[in-house]
Amino acid sequence: MKSGCYALMPRDVLLIIGDQIIEAPMAWRSRYHENHAYKDLCKEYFKKGATWVSAPRPQWTDKTYVEGFVGPREGEPMRTILTEFEPLCDAADVVKCGRDIFVAQSSCCNRFGIEWLQRHLGDDYTLHEIEVYDRHPMHIDATFYPLAPGKLLINPERVRKVPEMFKKSGWDILRCPEPLMPESHPMYNCSRWISMNVLMLNEERVIVSKGEDTVIEALKDWGFDPIPCNFYDFATIAGGFHCASVDVRRKGELESCF
Q1: Cα–Cα distance between 173 and 190 in angstroms, integer?
Q2: 96: region left, alpha or beta (phi > 0 left; psi from -120 to 50 alpha)
Q3: Spatial strand order in the sheet of 199-200
């Protein structure tokens, strides 16, 4: 592998659930070895008491992908390049909220992968599949993001139906403002919604990309304390603050937010 730039995003590779480190069954052939970048850390955490497991390693045969795949045109039903031949799921297709875990199918995640993860986690956690519409579906953290108990950030273009559990529990549904990424940015046409890929430090403090003033002001209005940081250079490889981090340590007790 001559280049491993996407290995800069541990959130894509490692799913941390409680004391478990789960190496994700990545869907892209080019990302097969990215977990190697974090092996030393995984061994270190394992020696300190963490549970460490790898999901079934993909075969990535031609049966894994839809032959001659063409993405949906505007107005056509959502579809992805993945078949159900084997379980596939990037860790960043998943976002956690206490005992509830939200996941969306994408070019990196199929229904088989979602089913594998639910069976592996057992009854302690409940997976909820989110209905999204994205002609170029990737990870959930620029689409659907519970920021804090009672506050859900959604992509207004991709999320057309919020699960009833949020409405029944009285959550505020926060629609992300239009991104301000300059049109000259190399990723403008691909991932300008990386603006909502923020990192929550606690229930109020949030790291957000400097220059995304509409998001920063909206976060303030919603009761958060945003910390703007330069990150447009990292966005050149389609990543945000959530992608570039992974929460291996958290304070507090596991609880339900619903």
Answers
A1: 25
A2: beta
A3: 199-200, 205-209, 225-229
Largest CA distance in the chain: 51
Candidate list 90, 93, 134, 141, residue with the active-site label: 90
Q: From residue 57, how far is each of 8, 18, 109, 112 by CA, in Å?
A: 21, 22, 14, 13
| 152's tokens | 């859900």
Pick the catalytic residue: 89, 139, 141, 176? 139
What 8-state DSSP symbol labels residue 129?
E
Place of tokens 């939200």: 102
* End-to-end Cα separation, the chain, in angstroms: 44
Report the DSSP beta bridge partners of residue 164: none
Positive or negative, the CA dihedral 85, 136, 209, 129 is negative
* pLDDT tens for the 258 residues of the chain, in order: 455 667 889 999 999 999 999 999 999 998 888 899 999 999 999 999 999 999 999 999 999 999 999 888 887 888 999 999 999 999 999 999 999 999 999 999 999 999 999 999 999 999 999 999 888 888 999 999 999 999 999 999 999 889 999 999 999 999 999 999 888 887 766 778 989 999 999 999 999 999 999 999 999 999 999 999 998 888 888 888 999 999 988 888 888 999
Alpha carbon distance 181, 178 (integer Å): 9
The amino acid at residue 10 is: P
Residue 222 CA: distances (Å) to CA of 66, 158, 206? 42, 21, 12
Q: In the annotation, is 90 catalytic?
A: yes
Instruction: Return all residues near 57 (Cβ < 8 A) that are at least 6 apart.
Output: 25
